[in-house]
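Discrete fold record:
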Amino acid sequence: MVSGILLIADAGVTLAWQEPVSAFFAERQQNALKEELYNPPPHVEKRIREKRPLPGDSIGEIILPSLGKHYFMVEGTDTANLRKGPGHYPDTPLPGERGTVAVAGHRTTYGAPFRNIDQLKHGNRIIMSMPYGRFIYRVEKTQIVDDSALWITDPVGYDRLVLSACHPLYSAAQRIVAFARLTKRLPPTVRG
């Protein structure tokens, strides 16, 4: 009976918020990414400043002011990397570089960083805080696309950011994508 109640409680928490067990592990991974970003070993700091991160490196922080959320990002979008937090697609430019920057994140597991990506509205800011600068993007639109829509990372003639996640919630049948345009470049935030 206790097991049944726990299973129902777990399902309720997952539906209302996110999967609690993976959220616990994701929080630990986020803390590790934060520590690596702000106190990197010299060889990692050099790779990030030279904009040559390796998969698994902590590369920056994504701030979603309209959602009241921020997450530390990892280089790479494979399963292991996305368990840590939002992952930068390695075959796209890094934030602040020319072209289309792409970042993926989970909606129901591993901290669910992009759970509410569907609530981003036209004009909302997305801040990419990197060791080499801060880059302000403004949301242009969100769109539901097929899970094989590789065109979302194509260059479009201006500097763009795309955030992608599975859609609908609890399914990987499609993707929800937020498209944003780079509007401002700022120096990096000083951490002390």
User: Anything to note?
Assistant: The longest helix spans residues 20-38. The chain has one domain: 2-186.
